[in-house]
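DM between two lab members

TW: hey, do you still have the Serine/threonine-protein phosphatase 4 regulatory subunit 3 entry open?
JB: yeah, one sec
JB: this one, 820 aa:
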Amino acid sequence: MTDTRRRVKVYTLNEDRQWDDRGTGHVSSGYVERLKGTSLLVRAESDGSLLLESKINPNTAYQKQQDTLIVWSEAENYDLALSFQEKAGCDEIWEKICQVQGKDPSVDITQDVVDESEEERFDDMSSPGLELPPCELNRLEDLAELVASSLPSPLRREKLALAVENEGYIRKLLEMFRVCEDLENREGLHHLYEIIKGIFLLNRTALFEVMFSEECIMDVIGCLEFDPALSQPRRHREFLTKTARFKEVIPISDPELRQKIHQTYRVQYIQDMVLPTPSVFEENMLSTLHSFIFFNKVEIVGMLQDDEKFLTDLFAQLTDEATDDDKRHELVNFLKEFCAFSQTLQPQNRDAFFKTLSNMGILPALEVILGMDDVQVRGAATDIFSYLVEYNPSMVREFVMQESQQNDDDILLINLIIEHMICDTDPELGGAVQLMGLLRTLVDPENMLATANKTEKTEFLSFFYKHCMHVLSAPLLANTTEEKPSKDDFQTSQLLALILELLTFCVEHHTYHIKNYIINKDILRRVLVLTASQHAFLALCALRFMRRIIGLKDEFYNRYIMRNFLFEPVIKAFLNNGSRYNLMNSAIIEMFEYVRVDVKSLTAHIVENYWKALEDVNYVQTFKGLKLRYEQQRERQDNPKLDSMRSILRNHRFRRDARTLEDEEEMWFNTDEDDLEDGEAVVPPSDKMKSEEDLMEPISKFMERKKMKDSDDKEVLGKSSLSGRQNPSFKLSFSGSTKTSLSSPPSSASLNPGSPGSPGSPGPGARSSPSTTAVTTKGGLVGLVDYPDDDDDEDEEEEEEDVESKEDPLPPSKKSKLSS
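TW: and the structure you got?
JB:
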């Protein structure tokens, strides 16, 4: 079994006729039992996974191009290519392919044999070669018919290609073209158009090398000007020789490189402009033309990269203050196209390419260019910067942190990027969107490195929040100094939405950096001013920002929200939206529903301060649920004995079916012991038993209190203080059926999140889960029940889990998990 391991890159041709990079690995050839034949195997160098397993089929045509490339088609519209790092490896695999197919390794293509009708195969086998008519003016029509008839048959197409190649027929055809053009023989020119177009569809590299040579390519383009479908010929040659100009921004001394650049431009022009749009059947016949352009670009990048004098002169002129604006514009456009060409390189070569640019000082050069006034130059520099960020964001982060030690904040590269994002003059902010994506990549902790000596995340985020965050948030802070946005036009709103999107990303992915910034700069209050914007998308961005903060369940954030009464602008927006069923309505209700289920401290804050504004909202149960959850929480705080009573009553209640009990036991045994708070013990119910006389007093008191509450159900609960704390007032005045005004002035005894018993800090009663609010006796058995109109079954489940939670004390996190 042969096993010649060579380093290769695997490419496949996609639907857009572009080569997709499938990975780098090592190729070998050997017999594969499953495929019943000798196959090419490529295993990834990173993890050894199989990138390619392709049987060397005797009927498949393999092409060897440019000494290091093997291309073939495995099926219709599925082309493959192996690009070798070494010529020796390519030669070795090519010999193996030729050995399997019984061909001479000196050829550059193995013959293509496909299934055809028996009659056609017999006819073709009887004639070993295809004989071309002599290249004469009166035989051009016969030759055009021969080419057209050969294209549908792969075997005849192959024989035609060999005949054209062996007889040097292309040069003869181009001589005939010059004769016909001199004689103005329009019929002969039309036949030559069909012949040359057919030769393109033969998809043969050897023919392309002749047609695209310096002495032939302009005549080939000339032949393609005389399309029979057009009344007048095209003027492609005139455009290429007079209009299109080759600009050498830096003189190129290598004549081979210069010729390769000319050739690539012209072939690209032929593909894009000269050749007619291929039909569905013809498109796959031009795959070799795509490959020719692709690998030419790879070769150009490699030759430029190896020319150290060229790159040195390029960057020297870019950063030279004496360079005039037109020259600098050309230099930047060249560098942009140079970076675009680099995308065709294999990963290891692309690494070397960007490393070379970095060593040459591309980032300091971009910093100079971005500080210029020319919009086009800045746009090209932004595109170059995007290539660098996408390739290696760590390299960019390291540069900006180093320059901060020497330069002021105003001229830092990253701050220049932020300023260009803010000052984008495009009404649709296309450039700002691109720059925001680059900033997001730079501040994303997922692509930051952690080494033994340093942590990039800590260092860069500390730098960013110290030197750059104030620049990013400046438009937001400037526009939210009052109760409504000071500027509410579409372009400003779009910019603020982009900034909010990036800040929301920071809330999700950064920890104490963004938390300190939001609390110290009172960012959330300023953001919520935008809920009054006339643009719904901006108001929703502000809501999304607050929702992400609440979703973190961080008590620092919760105390900050309660201390500054930051739900007030949200409730104002909710009431101003009225009864309209839209995205704003749904987003706000979802936020309150999340608070009801998961955030006890905010639940109490909302009910105590804003219940009067929300009590009439009946089309959803969210706000009534908030009130119920708040009442249950207060009952636990006011009646600590009630919890122990429930523990005993639990033993006298009706039992549910065994399956329900098994589910509850499974929930308990799935609870981690680590989740129990220090010092808590799991006490069996029998240890908490009390006498019946001890229970009667709290039961009767509880029943009396319930009756009193039923008679005065519509009074605002905020009048009674929680843990002796005076609640901030929340006043409402109604001047109509829909208009509501809010005011919640802070008082001297406003909410203090850190005080004992307050929602922000776990007090003695804060550990209790939501409980039931009524006691009833049925059939001689006592039980706790709370059956709202629509939630009988759900609340019974909650009640039983509450009693169990008192039997078996759990930490708050587990109680909330069970009660929900």
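TW: got it. The longest strand covers residues 19-32. The two ends are 64 Å apart (CA to CA).
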